[in-house]
Design brief:
Blueprint lengths: L8 H8 L7 H11 L7 H14 L6 H16 L10 H12 L6 H13 L5 H15 L7 H12 L11 H14 L6 H16 L7 E2 L1 H12 L6 H13 L2 E2 L1 H9 L3
Parallel strand pairs: 1-2
Helix pairs in contact: 2-4, 3-4, 4-6, 6-7, 6-8, 7-9, 8-10, 9-10, 10-12, 11-13
Amino acid sequence: MADHMTKPLAELEKEILEDGVVDAKEAAMLRERLFADGRIDREEADFMFRLNDAVSGKANDPAWQQLFVHALTTHVLSDEKSPGVVDDDEAAYLESKIQADGKVDDAEQALLVNIIRKAKSTTPDFQKFVLASMKTAILADGVIDEAEVQQIRTIVYGSGSGGGAAIDRPEAEFLFELNNATSGKPNHASWKELFVEAIAKHVLEDEISPGQIDDDEAAWLVRQIEGDGTVDDNEKALLMEIKEKAKSIAGALKEWMTALGL
């Protein structure tokens, strides 16, 4: 591949896929070619998505995923039209490409996390797409491991998330959905810490009733916790955190907590 700097991308793609994987040498060659002009255009982005779909799940060198994430993040966040922002066109593009093969693989999952971490802002629809995609990917094996906890932390606290450093309602409900789906499973200990911290932040650091659990928050918490018919250890820890830190708790939740012996 001595002429990799000038060869058409379609030819490079064909050569790389002869053995079905992207090795370290090929990843380095692609990095040199793609970033020669300091930018990633739409043709190059399309090429990267096609290549990733073709080698997804294969024994690629780790440098491939690193390049994929870096290149596609550069494409959407370093453009001239909306630098640092995922606009409507970019959101639609990312969604269509990631959904093209019917699954969110490890590289695409890492891409979504990186974009949420680095973007100044993203669209509401893209935020919903990220939460739904990450939920499916994270729950594939029914357990939340340490690496996934870090990914979850990034997508709910990242600057490109719905609430930014705060936790908005869709993010809070996403966390409850994950908790309900993995309740009683051998999740990493840091999952409980993140769940309690983030939900407590959502209800105690809001603008409407900071430091207090108002009627709306009380009713919402009861619905979420009762959603799967059980009150697990993580939810009990959350209620104890609220009991300790809240200046006041609306009657409905206070009575319900008392009935639970909390």
